[in-house]
Each structure stands twice: as C-alpha cells, then as structure tokens.
Specification:
- By secondary structure, this protein is α/β, with parallel strands linked by helices.
- The protein is built from 12 helices and 12 strands.
- The chain has helices at residues 10-22, 33-40, 55-60, 76-88, 101-113, 122-135, 160-171, 185-194, 208-213, 229-239, 257-262, 271-283; strands at 2-6, 25-30, 46-49, 68-71, 93-97, 118-120, 152-156, 177-182, 199-202, 221-224, 246-250, 268-269.
- The chain has a 6-stranded parallel β-sheet with strand order 3-2-1-4-5-6, sandwiched between helices. Strands 9-8-7-10-11-12 form a 6-stranded parallel β-sheet.
- Residues 137-148 and 287-302 have low confidence and may be disordered.
Length: 302
C-alpha cells in the first residue's frame, strides 16, 4: 500500500515505523523542522516538509497514487481538512484523528458528507482499553474483577482520558462506583456538571494526606491519568500502600515507559501508541475491536 501520514508527532512516528517494518510504502508530511530531521534519519522513509492540509503539499507527497491517508496531527481542523482533500483526489481510505469532543459534535455531519472513512479519538481508545483491563484478570481469563459486586474505581486526573473513562464506567452494566480527583478547581466544577454518577473531588494526588483522607483503602482500582508522567508515577507509587488490586498509569511520553517498568508499574496505557497500533492493524485488515468510530457513530463516542 502507498500510505501518506499527515503529522510526525508520537503517533505518526510510531505508525510510520510499524508500517515500514511491514514493507509498506510510507510518506510522512510534517511542518516542524526538528521532526522532519528525525524522520530523515531513516532512509526507508520519505518525508515532505509542509502543511498536510494544503493541496500542493499533498501532491508532493504523492496523493494521486495513495491507497490510504492517515491524519494524526494534534490539530483536529488540520486532520479533517487533510482527509477532505484526500477524498477530492479519490484516495480510497482515510483515517482522521480527532481529539476535541466539541469538534466531533459540531462537525460530525460535515465529516460524513465528505466521506471520511474512520475517525479515531485517542482518549476514547485508551478508555476502552482500560475498561477491558478492569474487566479481566491478569491471567487473561474471562473472570471479571467486578463480578456481582460493586467495583470502586478512582481516577487521578480530569483531563480528556479521565473524562472519557468516567463516562464509560458510568454507563457500564457492572455498576462501578467512580471517584475522580482533579487538582484544578475550574476543571472540577466543569466535570461535576457533565458527569452524572461520578464523585468529583478537588485535590493533589501526590499528597499522601489527601489520599488517606479520601479513603483510598476502599479502592479496587486506581487509574493515574493526569497530564504529567511524573505526577502519574509519584501518585501510583504512593497509592500502592493502600493495596488496590489494579494500578493503571497513562504514559504521555514513550521514552518514560522503561522508567515505569523499573519501578514495577507494568499496567501502562499510552493513547498515542494505542492509536498507532490500531491503525497498523487496519493496514493488515485485522479486527479493530470497535476502537474506531464510523462517522455515523461519532455522537455516541463523546
């Protein structure tokens, strides 16, 4: 396949190397000079410097012969426009990364109208994976942690992943009891309005006194999903003394994964790497486990 990747960040970088390993013909479009130089170190990769939402740049990348365009920049608008332009060049398949929940709601009809084939939200992907991790034991057998009893889950961080996970847990048939701790009072007030069944608390998850005050001893699982890897590491190590059955940490930066593992934190979630892995599966025709969102389903993904 001839594949164009718009965006050379962590998702684009990981995806490009997966696809090259498969033997695919890959071109990356990136407008950051530092990232461009990073890609040039791999002679098997072709990189075009420029804005992937511009027709001339897409033509330089070979859009007229592309089988698949994957737009994974950090800007929803750029990703959407790149995919829309790709369809104008009759690219058979397009995948669009969209992060902002408001953008999804406001533009879902536009996305469907212009034929974007798949939309993917990294935080939704990660939240679904965490839910699976909570539902099944480490042995990999179909034995639910929750069973017939209520499961207590505590989420550290009220960002995109924490919010998506809380929504999933609220709607689960397993009747999870969910508590979310967020440092920003402003974010807490917003989440308190949007989440119906989650107890939203304001606090610093790196303070042991606060963790004791919130009775973390009752938690069956703790998800460290703040916006900072160091905070997640510290919080995960502190919460060990409370004895939860499961501690799951979000990893923002791939290079921090070895640090987590040396500290004995093995249940790790990287939204970016999950997205790259799932798009990689798409190119091989493998099942995507409902992690992708078709245009008509986007409103349900929020």
């Amino acid at each position: 396949m001839y594949i164009i990747i718009v965006g050379g960040g962590e998702v684009g970088y990981e995806l490009a190397h997966h696809l090259i390993y498969q033997g695919q013909n890959v071109v990356v479009i990136e407008n950051d000079k530092g990232r461009v130089e990073r890609f040039k170190k791999n002679p098997a990769l072709k990189v075009v410097e420029g804005n992937g939402a511009q027709a001339l740049v897409l033509e330089q990348a070979g859009i007229k012969k592309a089988d698949l365009l994957v737009a994974v920049t950090d800007m929803d608008e750029v990703n959407t426009l790149a995919c829309l332009l790709a369809k104008k060049y009759y690219v058979p398949h397009t995948v669009c990364r969209i992060r902002g929940k408001g953008f999804l709601k406001e533009d879902s009809s536009l996305i469907s109208q212009f034929g974007i084939d798949m939309v993917i939200n990294p935080e939704k992907v990660a939240a679904l994976e965490i839910l699976r991790m909570l539902q099944f034991s480490d042995a990999g057998v179909n034995k639910s942690f929750a069973g017939d009893r209520i499961r207590h889950v505590v989420i550290f961080g009220g960002g995109a992943l924490g919010y998506q996970l809380a929504l999933l847990l609220e709607s689960s048939r397993q009747h999870f009891v969910v508590k979310l701790i967020e440092k920003s009072m402003k974010v807490c007030k917003k989440l308190d309005l949007e989440l119906q069944k989650t107890l939203v608390l304001n606090g610093d998850v790196t303070e042991i006194s606060m963790l004791k005050e919130e009775e973390l001893y009752a938690a069956d699982a703790v998800i460290a999903a703040t916006s900072d890897d160091r905070t997640n590491i510290v919080a995960a190590l502190l919460v060990r003394e409370f004895g939860p059955k499961k501690i799951i940490c979000e990893v923002k930066k791939q290079q921090n994964i070895p640090v987590y593992k040396t500290l004995g934190l093995d249940s790790l979630i990287s939204p970016r790497l999950l997205v790259a892995a799932q798009i990689n599966c798409l190119t091989r025709g493998e099942e995507l486990l409902d992690l992708f969102i078709l245009p008509g389903e986007m409103d349900r993904s929020i």
